[in-house]
Amino acid sequence: LMLLLLCGFSFYLGGIYSTGRTFTFSSTTTSIIPIVSTAKQEGSAIALAIARNGNGDDEVEFSECPADYQDYTPCTDPKRWRRYGNYRLSFMERHCPPPPERAVCLVPPPRGYKPPIRWPKSKHQCWYRNVPYDWINSQKSNQHWLRKDGDRFTFPGGGTMFPNGVGAYVDLMADLIPGMKDGSVRTALDTGCGVASWGGDLLARNILTVSLAPRDNHEAQVQFALERGIPAILGIISTQRLPIPSASMDMAHCSRCLIPWTEFGGLYLMEIQRVLRPGGFWVLSGPPINYENRWHGWNTTVEAQKADFDRLKKMLASMCFRLYNKKGDIAVWQKSLDAGCYDKLTPVTTPAKCDDSVDADAAWYVPMRSCVTAPSPKSRGKALPKWPQRLGVAPERVSVVPGGSGSAMKHDDGKWKAAVKHYKALLPALGSDKVRNVMDMSTVYGGFAASLVKDPVWVMNVVSSYGPNSLGVVYDRGLIGTNHDWYALPLLPTASCSTLCSTLPEWN
C-alpha cells in the first residue's frame, strides 16, 4: 500500500511539473546552450537548445512558436481572460496557465525586427517593426505619447496632464519636491505609466523608476518603454499586492491613471502607503486635482469633483499622509515620519492598522489588505542616506538575509566587481551602449547591479519567491527589482531584455 501511495504521489508531481519534454543526461554537470540555426523551413527558423554532458551527445529541439505569438506573455494572456472574473479588473492580474496549456516553443520576434536603436537615442525613437502596434498609435496620437514617422515611432514626451512635454511637467514637480534635486528621492513608482515617458525623464535626474501598466487586450504599452530602454513591468493595482516590498519607494506617481483611489474604502491608497517609505511622496495629477478648472473635460460636475477631492484628502490624512504641496494640476502628499500617528491606529480603528499576521514585505500572490502598514520600529524617524551614498551603506533590512550583515554585503560587492570585470572581458558590449536592459535572475544584495551603476544600463533585480526575501535590501540601496517564482516570465513582454544574467558569484 505504501509503495502504491508513493508511486501515485510521484505521478502527481510529475504531472504538475512536466513540461512535455524529456531530458536524459548521463552526467550531473550539464549546460544548456541555445543555438538558432541558420537553416530555414518554409520561412521559419529552427531553434535548438542543446543540453551537453561530458560526451556532448544529448540534445533537445524546440520549434519556433507561430508568428502570432510575437506579443505572447504567458501569464497575462488576453485569450484566457474570460476564465477570470471582472471584479476590480482582476483578470488583468497574473494568471499562469496550467502545465498542459503552456507553450513549449521559442517565441519569435516580430517580422522585420532589427537591433534596437541605442541609448540615449532610443529614449526618443524606436523601430516600428520592433513594436508594430498600430492600435495604440491611433488611439493615443492626440495625447502626443507617440507618433509613427516612417519606419520609426517617435516619442514627443507628451501626455494627458503634461501637454507642454514631460520635461516641463517634471520641472514643476521638482519645484514642489526639493528632494528630487538633492538625491533624497532615488526610487519611484509610476502607476498606469503608458509608454513611461515620466520614468524616462527621471533617469537623467538620477531617479530610478519602476513604471507599471497592465497588458490590455490590444497591446502591452510597457513594451514601448522597454524598447526605449526605460525600466517597466506589467502589472495592475487590483486584488494582489504589487511585487514590491514595503517601504521601498521614495516617490509614487499617478498621472490620470484612472485608478479609483477613493473606492473600496481606500484600499488602493493603502497599497501605495505600504510601498512608500516614511517621508516618501505620493504625487497625483488628473481628477480630482485642480477640479475648479478641469472639471469641464471630465464628463462630471464641479460638485462631484470637489466631493471626491475632499474625500481623498480625508482618507490620506487618516493614513498618516499630509498635503505637502500643490500647484496647478499637481498635488503632493507626504507619508508621515511621526511614529505617534501610527500609534493612534489599532486593528479596530478606521482605517485599521495591520497586524503582524502577514509580513509587510511579502508580495508574491499576497492579497491586498484593508489596513495601514505601520513603519518598522527600527526605521521610525530614520531617513536613508542620499543617493549615491546609500548604494554602499548596509540598510537595516540586511538582517533578513541569512548570514546577512554589512560586512557580508561589502564582501558580495567585491566579488561582483571582479565578476563583472570578467564578464566584460567575455562580452565587451556590456558597459557600452549596445546593452541597455539587463535582468539579474537571482540576486541577493543587488551586487551585480551595483557594479554596473556607472554604465549606461539598468538592471532589474529578481529575488526568488522561494528563498529569503532580500528585495527590500535592493531597494534600500537605491536599486529596483521584483519577486518571481520562475515558472514563467509574465512581468516582461517578448524581446524586452538585452541580456539575461544569472547570479553566479562563482563565475570562474
Automatic annotation (TrEMBL):
Q: What is this protein called?
A: Methyltransferase
Q: Which organism is it from?
A: Aegilops tauschii subsp. strangulata
Q: Where in the cell is it found?
A: Endomembrane system; Membrane
Tell me which positions the record assigns to the signal sequence: 1-18
Record keywords: Glycoprotein included?
yes
Q: Which keywords, in A-to-Z order, does the entry hold?
A: Glycoprotein, Membrane, Methyltransferase, Signal, Signal-anchor, Transferase, Transmembrane, Transmembrane helix
Topology of the protein relative to the lipid bilayer: Single-pass type II membrane protein
What Enzyme Commission number does this protein have? 2.1.1.-
Any one cellular component term from GO for this entry?
membrane
Q: Which Pfam families match?
A: Methyltransf_29
The record's family statement is:
Belongs to the methyltransferase superfamily.
